[in-house]
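Final paragraph of the annual report: two paired records, presented back to back.
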Amino acid sequence: METQTLLALPIVLALEPVAGEPPARMTLNRDEAAELAQLVAADLHSLVPQVDTARLALAGALFDQVELLRPGFPVWATLDELARRVPRGHLENVVAFGTHDGHMPTQPLEPSPIHADGPMRLLPLNLLAPAELAEALSDQLEIQLVGRGEAGPLTADWLMRTLGIRLEHVRYLSRNDLLALTCVQYEHVNLAALWVLLEAALLTPNRDESVLSARGLALHYTQGSVLAQSPAQWLAAQTGDNAGRAHAFAGIVFELRQYAALLDAHQLPLQLQTSTPQAAEAEAGYLLETLAAVEPDYDPPALFAHEAAGLGVVAITVAQRGDGGRARALAHGYPLQPQALGPLLARLADRYGIAGELHALGRIVLDDHGQLGAPATPLH
């Protein structure tokens, strides 16, 4: 049983392999993790001697930063929980968790192969420090790691031999350092607005945050989810001729796909923001908005695919024709991943009781008002 309050100070050991040489495996077994933990403890002691007042906990697993930077920081939270179960004083105040029979002790500590090709691999660490010493130790870690946080040569050599790779750099980072690094990376690829949303979800999850993307799409973080403005609604506010509007619409869907992919990697749900919650649906890989109910006096609904060069199908419009062949839009769906097109079509076919036949338009079709629509005459 603990006799004092311990606060967790999260850090990482960041590995940067030589380009094109990713590690052949993402985890260490128990003995390897314990051996590495002793090396890490020696490194940290040389950088910040005060770490001797804390318990070091190490997870023998290599993660991508998107896996570590998720709401609630589940990897660090799990490492913290496991470490607190080990009585203080065991294993010379260093505790490590590795694989047994090929598996980590709990699922959150299992790296995903989906993110295995990133340029940097991160091994999570926690320092459990007495509450009265935690603030001073945290301050020292922030100062020393950013200035001289390179891992010792014994640690770097051990990692290269054990993982069978060459490493350009091996260094320690605080979690704040990792947050700052990720911020710079997203800003560099014109995704600064996404970082603002992610930072809110990570650090101030109970506070709402609103941003505009680089192309002007409104996004809002609230209650653990990101609400995105409908691309069709965004289009309605644009000006210019239909050719320019169609090109801009393709660009906004491309940007939304970027956001969707990264938000999914960080496990932050994405939904459409509509006038009524019932008008929007968010499933794996697509977003769907309902505009109007089926009109019994019109033709049966049909599915139309808006397409753009390099992007494929950017939107699906469900429309039905009335007098004079004029099309009336009932819903718009946005496939955000290629594999989501099939499920989206199946969802629409089931909802409207129609065959899943998709009319490919070969372009983005706008109506007389410059809105996303469907051809006024039947396609043959």
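The closing record of the year follows.
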Amino acid sequence: MTDATLQPQEMLSLRVLARLLDYPTAALQAAAGELIEIIDRERRLPAALRTALMDWCQRTADGDLLELQAEYVALFDKGRATSLLLFEHVHGESRDRGQAMVDLMAEYQAAGFELDARELPDYLPLFLEYLSTRPEADIARWLGEIRHILALLTARLEERHADHALVPLALLALIGAEAEVAQHREQVVGEPRDDTPEALDEVWEEEAVRFSAASDEDCALQSAEGRRLAERKHGVATQPVRILSPGDQAPRVAGR
């Protein structure tokens, strides 16, 4: 924590939220104390939300890692309703999604933010790390642009009683938009689940015959996503996104 006090609190908070929303690892459990300290200093979050986040950090530190990882996979990789890929909530599998990711990649590159070739640019923890390198005005603008996605994701995760709902809720709170979640809570109650065995079988059947990418960019992006999903589906160990530690200034990400 030596260098943490020298960095803007918003930068540190975004990195903490990114780590909490990423695939759980032993490193995350070991860093729980540092994460709790940073959250406790984030006075832009309501006290009750700070407490809930800190309690979750402690539960993560005390939990069984394999169980935490299994719960994460069940929550985020067995259906698209809670996907952490931002553009999936906006564009689905349309060609527009591929172009949106190409545009976001260009934004990253212009800012000197490097990605591993296997990582999708709209992966929310990665996007938060990018935001942690940007000026406060840019952070507010970007969070404002995705607030409807964050609100819907919060409502869906709350419906599944997942602690992870605290992350998008905290992001909304940073821009004073947490009230937007209310309008989505009633909507998600009646939503059909897309993580049932029947729904998953249908999705995988569709994926197996999807060979008509409209462009080379679309094909590459689909391949990257397919590798990520296949690794999770078959239980292959993946390398987590390296969310920068508080003292790490270099905006570079290693792929999952």
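The chain has one domain: 7-233. This concludes the annual technical report; the extension proposal builds directly on these records.
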